[in-house]
Request: fold
Amino acid sequence: MNVVKKFGPVVALGGVSFDLRPGEIHALCGENGAGKSTLIKTLSGIYPYGSYEGELRMGAKTIQFRGIADAQTAGIAVIYQELALVDDMTVAENIYLGQEPRRGGFIDWLTVYRNTQQLLAKFKIAIDPATPVRQLGVGQKQLVEIVKALSKNSRILILDEPTAALSEHEVLVLLDILRGLRASGMACIYISHKLEEVFAVSDRITILRDGKSIVTLETKQTSPTEVIKNMVGREITALFPRRAGKREGTVMLSVKDLSVFDEIEQRPALANISFDVQAGEVLGIGGLMGAGRSELLMHIFGAWGRRTGGSVMLAQVPLNHPTPARSIAAGLVLVTEDRKRYGLLLEHEIGFNLSLSSIDRLVRMGLLDRGTEVVRNQKVFNNLRIKATGLEAIVGRLSGGNQQKVVLGKALLTDPKVVFLDEPTRGIDVGAKLEVYELINQLTDAGQAVVLVSSELPELMGMSDRIVMLSEGRVGGTFTREEATQEKLLAAAIATHHDAVAT
Reply:
């Protein structure tokens, strides 16, 4: 195809070529900013013919999409990471939205619901077609999106980071569906940063770097090491480069018998949780979805729940009745799991976002010291190697990895003693992950304490000095780095209230 796409002087795609075969799952891998999103928008008609150079072909025919409708008519369906369902409508209404069958001028609702039931049954998805979408979990919504795409008799299915918010079980369900589609002859383009999924389901892998296609590899004849090397352009010797921090034995955060009531769900949520975090240490927090990992961090930070028991000490000082502002002032900062919803103002510039949590430190005699602001923000911008034209670039236009760097930079500018990182590498590529890991090392080298929440056990084991596994809002087990194995961690994650294990 040799597709080239430019935005003014910026070259987003500098020559991308690959072919997709019938009945193939073809993975696209590359760092954030490599051009994957731009390529998807070109293939799906968002960037119409004439706005790019090169050629798209289906079979022997050159295709010239004028918009999304042309791509859909040609049989191309896209499942984006950001779901596009209407929460107030039912599953069936969402699946047939805009293509409702009619009888006598009226929508044939009987057919809508019957056909939806057949589609869901075909893919072994146990969801009632009459269920409002807002009642579904993220994983179920993702499956509904796929059924919606397949209801249009698509020939090519493009999936962009489809498992970013799915549980392990939901990932297995999705991959099984894709294998079934492949067996039926459908072609799929699968985009993911999770190489274990890529190797589990794909037939071939095309690697993008700096807007260009570098190589296409047969999955069975390559390895994750070779893929990563081609993605980042260098040899990666360690995926989890944890080094011992500056451990002085000083307890920076102490949580004793913490119990919390969920005022939204009106139920007890966390019970009798205790742990300490030392200066220079990374404490990992793991557990299954719904175990209370994010809720624990958000409560200590002051953003969720009502404390019903226990205590929290930050640098030997009680952290009672916390609010985010008080926590930041005391030396505790949270890098949230959902950067787009809670971590960034996407319509604003990088510099604006970097200053948000520490703006009070830039005020002199009631006025904002813009000179100091620009100097310190530029230093963070350079140190984190944010890929953008400058501090004035709009955050919403950055890749996921660079957005995450802005969130991290904003947190670090508060000069924290303790840093809470909630899924800091979710949705970012291998190269960006390594930069986050190196930043964690730098924090602990400086004597700061880090609490790392991750749903990926290899990451948790590779970057933590100790690990606390939560189970149903309680501590299921605590392990040193040397003691931790995937089997032990999973056993602790499913421990009941009566058989919780603490080592």
The CA atoms of residues 79 and 159 lie 5 Å apart. The first helix runs from residue 36 to 43.
